[in-house]
């Protein structure tokens, strides 16, 4: 394995939406009520929609900043690396990091479009959701064919509308949707109910992967009110552990045998334990709980339906056979603070050294390409997709770390961190 | 490795306290106000202390029952296997399972003595705590030297009293105490505060291991109100994940370099991931959070201070070098529903097949003996401590599964399960 020869498809990155995003996509009737970027007296910029002021749009968009400055979120576009919100600069940053493909989660609407779901005028809200998706699919992802895996948001206040939107975007070539790891926390029925069946049915029918990003329940786990921020950051993957456990005991997989779910930013090192634990609980307890996986074990069901991803996860890769070599994908997490940008190939390469090339290919790109119906080779040819080839196109990209001159809030507590940018901080 | 030659020390089992436990231990002045077992009209028995009715005393004490009956807790002593509450029968059940040594957590006072901490009369409460410990150490564990690792409860409403009790029981040979994985959830300062320093100091000074059992925060994680019971059972180890993360970023280990913490019933398969994640968070974020481990990484600190345990955990054993071979111990969890009793040696043996004998010895007994200052070999001689030798002493023990004729509440939800036996169900 040569780092230059890796082909990297990242299934979890983030877009900071540019202020002009709705201009070409919202119907004229709603133009003056579309979400817009406003400016505070202190120069901070934020999105406003109806009477809700969203969190600062630069939430955790710290790529290229020194780690000393991670604690404060950018509050203006000019405090962020342009690759956060400008598609041309984004692709240049991807090239500089040797990343071929990227799936981008939303920022200002929160992880699955909560901002729109809270809207009072649902006609406006559905127009905004469709405009968001059109911008994302046609303008953001569409500008660079073969470089992006489009991922839609959905009007999740109404499962029938969700199903319509899934079919609409699938017809435009979008085969991923971001949904909630725990909709009950958002005030909707849980994953155990049949409320979402029209949505699941549309996703199964169109081969749309349902992405459950950590934090998409708008609830972060806090251990103690005076715990330092490190604790909260460290335990975020447990959102995914909880979501996966919850999911596996729902009737979804029995009802929709073709459904595929991606656990986004959840990591993989805990998966072998989680599967063993679920199987143990099934074997010990199904006689009284009535759990029924059609003669299978929870881990068997998992293997048919779940796609996982990791940033840097040596223990998970070591146990990749237990995780499932055919279901592991990789992520870069650009431009968030956990990202390995711009050194992803080198850092990832360190944990791939003992893995056969065929398995590396699955983990770094083939699994993601198959799961998300993404075929960059058809667009660029495989030889132009490697880390080495992409970096050759980006020799002029400046990747130097640059201070934004922001104040370090040292010793921030988990509670303070959560409060910094409510309500969107809850979705980080 | 021959299953008959294993030596098994279990660091997590449970005692159902017998109704006579206070008779010989509570001072005369408090005798008529000691906790007592009362009987309901329907024949159910329960502990009463002051004006609080504790949960049914047989919480999850289902050893020997068919799995179809796990869903309902025994509500009378005669519904339980006598080994739950009778010391002679307990030792016979241990022998039948080839288990040499056992650490027993309390049941009716909850995991760390919450029932006493809620008492109005604190003089009565401290008398009850001391009586509880005297019964546990002298009568329960003391009846069979070399078979039990005593584990005290503490008067955790007052850290100075805690320190006194730690020193008092240490002088009687008790080197373990059960404390809370998250005292803030019990209405006390968190592990990040200096509130508990007198307690930590006494534990460090006396070599007392602080055991943090899952559920000792009296809070279980629930994903959704209509999640089936399986989800709640499956995610319980996450209490330990949260507690470990919380703990590692506290100042405890800097202040008390000799302290040892046992994560009880937490499992081990998730530890490699947790350590990697903590190190990653430290490396990525300490520049702005100010986290400081004295030049070490969180995983280095972990190795010096933490003891883990598992029931059945193939992935964790496979990654035992990452977990730490010198810190892994084993547990049986008798008489709870997750227990492998009476087939522990055979089930454990299946996951030990590829492990060198010297490491098996550490994991099955040597680590526990060292951590808890427990020396059964000095009492019985090593040759009488093996699975084979112990089972030879128990050929007459009836281990047949027996129905108690209780109704199966099939399809219980997680919420229902939690409500079945409040408040103690919260501590399960």
Detailed description of the structure:
Two copies of one chain form a homodimer. Chain A is α/β, with parallel strands linked by helices and 428 residues long. Helix content of chain A is 37%, strand content 12%. Chain A has helices spanning 87-96, 114-117, 122-141, 159-171, 197-206, 229-235, 237-248, 252-255, 271-289, 298-305, 314-318, 320-323, 344-352, 357-371, 376-380, 387-392, 414-420; strands at residues 8-14, 36-39, 45-49, 52-56, 99-105, 148-149, 176-179, 209-213, 261-264, 306-310, 328-330. In chain A, the strands form three sheets. In chain A, strands 7-8-9-10-11 form a five-stranded parallel beta sheet. In chain A, a hairpin with a 2-residue loop joins β3 (45-49) and β4 (52-56). In chain A, α4 (159-171) runs parallel beside α5 and α6 (229-235) crosses α17 (414-420). The radius of gyration of chain A is 21 Å and the shape is globular. The first copy, chain A, starts with 7 loop residues before the first strand and ends in an 8-residue tail after the last helix. Residues 420-428 of chain A have low confidence and may be disordered. At the A-B interface, α6, α7, α9 and α11 of A face α6, α7, α9 and α11 of B.
């Amino acid at each position: 394995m040569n780092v230059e020869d890796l082909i990297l498809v990242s299934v979890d990155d983030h877009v900071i939406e540019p202020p002009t995003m709705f201009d070409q996509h919202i119907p004229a009737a709603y133009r003056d009520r579309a979400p817009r970027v406003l400016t505070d007296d202190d120069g901070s910029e934020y999105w406003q929609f109806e009477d809700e002021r969203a969190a600062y749009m630069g939430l955790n968009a710290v790529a290229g900043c020194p780690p000393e400055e991670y604690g404060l979120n950018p509050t203006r576009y000019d405090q962020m690396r342009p690759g956060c919100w400008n598609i041309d600069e984004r692709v240049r940053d991807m090239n500089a990091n040797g990343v071929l493909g990227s799936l981008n989660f939303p920022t200002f609407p929160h992880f699955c479009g909560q901002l729109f779901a809270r809207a009072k005028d649902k006609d406006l809200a559905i127009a905004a959701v469709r405009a968001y998706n059109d911008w994302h699919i046609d303008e953001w992802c569409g500008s660079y064919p073969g470089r992006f895996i489009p991922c839609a948001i959905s009007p999740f206040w109404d499962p029938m509308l969700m199903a319509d939107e899934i079919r609409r975007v699938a017809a435009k070539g979008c085969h991923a949707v971001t949904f909630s790891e725990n909709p009950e926390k958002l005030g909707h029925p849980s994953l155990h109910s049949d409320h979402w069946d029209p949505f699941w049915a549309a996703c199964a029918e169109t081969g749309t992967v349902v992405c459950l990003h950590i934090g998409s329940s708008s609830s972060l786990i806090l251990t103690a009110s005076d715990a330092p921020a490190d604790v909260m950051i460290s335990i975020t993957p447990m959102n995914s552990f909880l979501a996966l456990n919850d999911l596996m005991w729902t009737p979804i997989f029995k009802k929709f045998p073709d459904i595929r779910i991606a656990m986004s930013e959840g990591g993989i090192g805990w998966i072998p334990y989680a599967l063993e634990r679920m199987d143990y609980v099934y074997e010990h307890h199904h006689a009284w709980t009535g759990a029924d996986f059609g003669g299978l074990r929870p881990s068997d069901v998992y293997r048919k339906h779940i796609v996982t991803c990791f940033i840097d996860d040596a223990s998970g890769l070591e146990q990749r056979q237990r995780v499932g070599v055919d279901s592991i994908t990789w992520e870069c997490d650009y431009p968030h603070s956990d990202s390995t940008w711009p050194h992803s190939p080198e850092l990832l390469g360190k944990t791939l050294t003992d893995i056969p090339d065929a398995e590396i290919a699955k983990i770094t790109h083939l699994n993601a390409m198959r799961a998300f119906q993404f075929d960059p080779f058809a667009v660029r040819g495989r030889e132009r997709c490697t880390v080495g080839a992409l970096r050759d196109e980006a020799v002029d990209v400046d990747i130097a770390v640059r201070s934004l001159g922001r104040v370090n809030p040292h010793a921030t507590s988990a509670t303070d961190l959560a409060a910094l940018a409510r309500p969107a901080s809850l979705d980080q």
